[in-house]
């Protein structure tokens, strides 16, 4: 069993948060300044392990704050403890009486806990902090130098090794027990001693991963400020905690300059806008202002210089491949072939320089492609301005119908950058069609004759209507499965923009009705079908009795929705055989969603589960608002914003409350299920396309005081008889696990952690909404709250706590 | 997983020296039992029993008319009151002298006492002769000395508190052999009314948020490591189907009558001195907790050791702590030793799935059980074929019990009774529940593996039974209505 203890600030009621936070930090011998009332640590995460030698290992992710050593305040100095700080993300400053040391991500710093210093974390940060016991030699070294000398250069050599070690230590903390840590402590101490005796080197010319990582971050930063005409290199440098010179060097390494790069990004965005017919009503000047040009003449000149034609001509006849890029999903041709940023021209370069430049250029290339694939084209807000909310009929909800088509779905990912397909106001009612990503298991029954499904699943040798499926790279450079790599599989309809929704608000999703989608094939007209795949990510996969041991089996079900009681019966099953998709890629397992199954290649077994009549529980596996994180997020692990919770209780007559993370909330729904058991054991449910009627109600932040919705930091489900608190191994896995979260979450989840999260959320809810003391809440939970296993197949494992409303006969919200 | 096959030399935590003690102790108990002869067979001595020892004349309420076995001359109905001679405190034992020997089809009404009654002796012990005799403890003598499977000379108290539940029994079933299945039908469950006239018509239970709870050390408010006892009231007349909290208090170090100080709840049945605690009233106001009366600990004796800690559940049942084990439920246990040696205890008025804080509403109950023996030879082709774990059948569901270790005594070897506490996980318990459900569907419904797995994913619910009993539990619930064509075999 792991010895790791994890804490999330959001699981602690606000009034206790500060105190609890410091209580945990005290284990490191630190205290935080957060007694200041203006600092709220609602986004703090701590993973803590104590070694057999009492060294304390802490992975800390949180908002800006200042830390000081407790030992320097209280009397007895501990003789041989050193504090090791590895700043993994963010910037920081160590300040003592006479000097100041600036830290940026990737830096390691050694601190003497007996000295009076302040560590100011200036940004949202992620760090590994180690209180290293019994390191008196190291401590002596630390004391001899000035503070500046205790910062370890991690650009190369032994410093890099040290950083790598600390990074892997961070990733593996959950899997190291207290008796394994001392060996690592010894190694670490030796490495650190070697680092301190090492001369600092400024050899920055080396192409290090750190530099590339910095460049990547800078690119992201630049992109988010493109609309600011005043944007300059100083601003970005300050933002990222890097020096201007260093930044200049990064761009020089890539064979360009900052201003060239900025210009090219702006022009590229303008190209997209100019080619977009839906923006035809905007003048060229209006469009160029959106991207930070403040002078139309200057824009025109720059554009012509780079693109070889005037903006007007470009708009009249946009190049063909850009049209392709404007389809939903991703371009098939590499956009970089028309990449607008400056290529070094007519300068003969020798191979060595080219070689050195290559990885840097790739970073810029990848970034451009990534942004394009998100189809930033029409930014959200200008489009919204076309439909100003009218004040007249706010009391009557408007009705909308949102069909599923290649224009209204995003497949396998969430992102706050996806253009909304519908703009509604609080209280409006939307009928939303959702499609199961497993429909291609039997296209005859689930797709044929259905224009909506056909438009989404359409995939021939030349055309794939929805190219991006998942959050992976569009060029499938990791596994080669296909665009998006299937890192995320669910077809989500949306997003829907809710007027006035702001971060801190709560979106209530009322599910008024759910109906299965009838087959449109004349052979099966009006019948309902679903597919259940026992897959490689299922709980059973490595634990089969009969051979072949590693097999995937798809079972087709018919859903008899209109019989009494509604139920499902199995029709046939087949073993997955390697399937070749229309692009010629073979899928030996179910590794990419929507691959059409060739029914001549499989062997169907009928007459299965003949005696079993399965009660139906129609529900949506995925309901989400857009995450606050930038970029594109795998749809599989559920998180604070909802997502793939896979709880069958989210059916007709229930309300789901989600914390709004971005303006407009951006609600999406998908992964429809006809039925599922708690645990979703084999990897999927009866995956069956459904249409739901939803009412979306916005609760503004300012009206939530004292209710459970105040500071809600996780999805909350209400059924007619119960409240369901959804615990997950990581309540906010991205914040907790850092940049590799989307990989790490699949490795580090456990049911214990999910159970702990569910317990803490249930306790928080009872204390906050029902005003119970902690002791009352805990007793009540033990005697009356039921914990069940929601799912064990979505990376971030789920355990839910069910509180029956009957327990509170007098309660009114 | 270690392969361990128990041999006669296995001790499972009982050393050679203490073995002698154990045997001697049982001999003493046996002698005293024969002298007292509290329990007789048949209705005649039963009537006498109810008058002399039972605080309620429950014995005559008519389950005996619900005869099931048609061929016998008619099942007998026995009554076992809870007395020092009819209970084992904190352990299961295949060598304990049975309190009654019955035949398949017979009914037995069994009183069970909660081991938390001394949290408020005024409400739960006083005026109740059965409870008073068991909980009796003065400077000279304890009503029941051994509490737990540990050594008799443990510093903390005899038996070391290694096992805490007061289990009434064992009941020996004639003809039961290893390999058979014992079916136990729970015909009725009623709460035990307070014997104190001040609380007439009421029953009480205690919920302790204890150091072995899932929450312990993960508290928001100070002191972080505290134990809190909450007393609940249950309607003994059965008119109200909900419980309400009366008061709570923080555990303070308690000195038992032998002079040992108990800083935490480390030994069962320590009388709480109410002058040392501070009671908080008006807690959990306006809250109604729906009651789910059930028996937390119920099972047959395991074969692996002579005396086994009552806390971790195992293949023979024991401390399963599933609230579904209430009135109307049927349990099936694999018989491990001759005579099966059934015992029952740890009565609960209500509990949530997970039993998070360590205990339920621990409330003394009386149950009426019918015992039916299924001989090994008759099992193939029935739902009980190849059953090697406790299986629960309720009105609507089959409930299979998975544990972190299906048979921890065999899997973990000689130190099993200690090791189990550090080796459990919910993930392992789910793995076990999955395998048992697959086995059940393949054996009893003749599904192939692929059918079983698909069905499990789309229609079987997995829940967390408990995370506080050493060997953690996950249960799998299968709706019986899914197989309308078959019904129960």
Question: How would the global form of chain B be characterised?
Answer: globular
Largest beta sheet of chain B, briefly?
A: 9 strands, mixed
Taking strands numbered 1, 2, ... along the chain, how are they ordered across the largest sheet of chain A?
A: 13-17-33-19-30-34-35-37-36
List segments of chain A where confidence is low: pLDDT < 50 over at least 5 consecutive residues: 199-206, 321-347, 373-394
Assembly category: heterodimer
Helix-residue proportion of chain B:
10-25%
Distance between the termini of chain A: 41 Å
Mean pLDDT over all positions of chain A:
84
By DSSP, the count of extended strands of chain B is 25
Q: What labels would you give this structure?
A:
heterodimer, A: 813 residues, alpha+beta, 9-stranded mixed β-sheet, 7-stranded antiparallel β-sheet, 20 helices, 37 strands, B: 489 residues, 8 helices, 25 strands, 27% strand, disordered N terminus
Summarize the structure.
The complex is a heterodimer of chains A (about 800) and B (about 500). Chain A has about 800 residues and is α+β, with helices and mostly antiparallel strands.
What does this structure look like?
The complex is a heterodimer of chains A (813) and B (489). Chain A is of the alpha+beta class and 813 residues long. Helices cover 27% and strands 23% of the residues of chain A. Chain A contains 20 helices and 37 strands. In chain A, the strands form seven sheets. A nine-stranded mixed beta sheet of chain A has the order 13-17-33-19-30-34-35-37-36. Chain A starts with a strand and ends in a 9-residue tail after the last strand. With 489 residues, chain B is α+β, with helices and mostly antiparallel strands. Chain B starts with 15 loop residues before the first helix and ends in a 10-residue tail after the last strand. Chain B has a nine-stranded mixed beta sheet. In chain B, strands 2, 4, 6, 15, 17, 19 and 20 form a seven-stranded mixed beta sheet that branches. Helices cover 17% and strands 27% of the residues of chain B. Chain B has helices spanning 16-36, 42-52, 121-124, 129-135, 408-411, 416-423, 426-444, 449-459, and strands at 77-80, 87-89, 91-93, 100-102, 107-112, 166-173, 181-191, 202-209, 228-235, 242-250, 254-255, 261-262, 279-281, 289-290, 294-300, 307-309, 317-319, 330-334, 342-350, 361-362, 365-374, 391-393, 397-403, 461-466, 473-479. Residues 1-13 and 29-72 of chain B have low confidence and may be disordered. Chain B is globular. At the A-B interface, strand 21, strand 22, strand 26, helix 19 and helix 20 of A face strand 9, strand 10, strand 14, helix 7 and helix 8 of B.
